[in-house]
Amino acid sequence: MAIIKHANPCGVAVGATLVEAYEKALSCDPVSAYGGVVALNRTLDATAARKIVEIFTEVIIAPAVDDDALAIIATKKNLRLLVAGALPDPRAPTASVRSVAGGLLVQDRDAGALDPATLKIVTKRAPTATELADLLFAWKVCKHVKSNAIVYVRDGLTVGVGAGQMSRVDSAMIAARKAADAARAAGLPASRTQGSVVASDAFFPFADGLVAAIEAGATAVIQPGGSVRDADVIAAADAAGIAMAFTGMRHFRH
Q: N or C: which terminus of the chain carries fewer CB neighbours within 10 A?
């Protein structure tokens, strides 16, 4: 389940049911979710539809919709439903086209998928099994966030997303601040970035972005690696006792 706002995910989660996944995704950033796009990868049922329309939503995208859910959506005159049918293969090679002054920019779409077996653990501490699962989930989400992108994840849901900033450290700090805001609004005793993992779509050029994530409470990080200052970043991770994995792949969405 993903909630999209201005072409960026502001909440992504997995769950045993659509309602569970939606509620978890919404909890990441309920303020930004207002007027957003909700995207599902399962048939939309009435229970999920009823929950989604509790706040103003512009668009729902689903592979299919049942009759009861359709009846609920029909009562909302400003809500658009897109029934997409079978989901495409995310690894299929396709072109991405952007308009530029005087022409078009055509490039291969980012179809890169991470093989967990190729991860390189570069810190003294390796991620736990729970951290590793969240790291892989965070990496999938980070691919779809505009760069500079930072994504905090805990227990299978995003808890903070920082997108499109000119500085990677700014993205890390904004994501942490939004997570803290959501925690206060929900009456939680602490931000859910405490004990989270963090993904960065491109390498940390300096240790400051990683330090910001550590200060937010992240215990593990996944990033491409490849900076001339990788040694400094690894040293900062080791000093904090966190785990870090290099993917050897960057996304960098613009």
A: C
pLDDT of residue 137: 96
Please give the DSSP secondary-structure letter assigned to residue 41: S
Confidence of residue 224 (pLDDT cuts 50, 70, 90): very high
Rounded Cα gap, residues 158 and 8, in angstroms: 13
What is the identity of the amino acid at 141? V
For the domain made up of 119-246, the CATH class stated in words is alpha beta
The CATH number of 2-83, from 3.40.140.20, 2.60.120.620, 1.10.1060.10, 3.30.1330.60, is 3.40.140.20
Closest CA to 130 of 155, 153, 105, 111: 155
Q: Do domains 2-83 and 119-246 have the same CATH topology?
A: yes
3-state DSSP of 23-34: HHHHHHCHHHHC
How are strands ordered across the β-sheet holding 36-39? 8-12, 2-5, 36-39, 57-62, 80-83
**Taking a C-beta distance cutoff of 8 angstroms, is the pair 139, 114 a contact?**
yes
Give how far Cα 41 sits from Cα of 15, 50, 63, 142, Å: 12, 17, 6, 18
Residue 163 in tokens = 């997108």
CA gap 164, 103 in Å, rounded: 24
Residue 18 pLDDT: 96
By residue count, the chain amounts to 254
Residues of 203-214 as b/e, b for ≥16 C-beta within 10 angstroms? bbbebbbbbbbb
For residue 36, the one-letter residue type is G
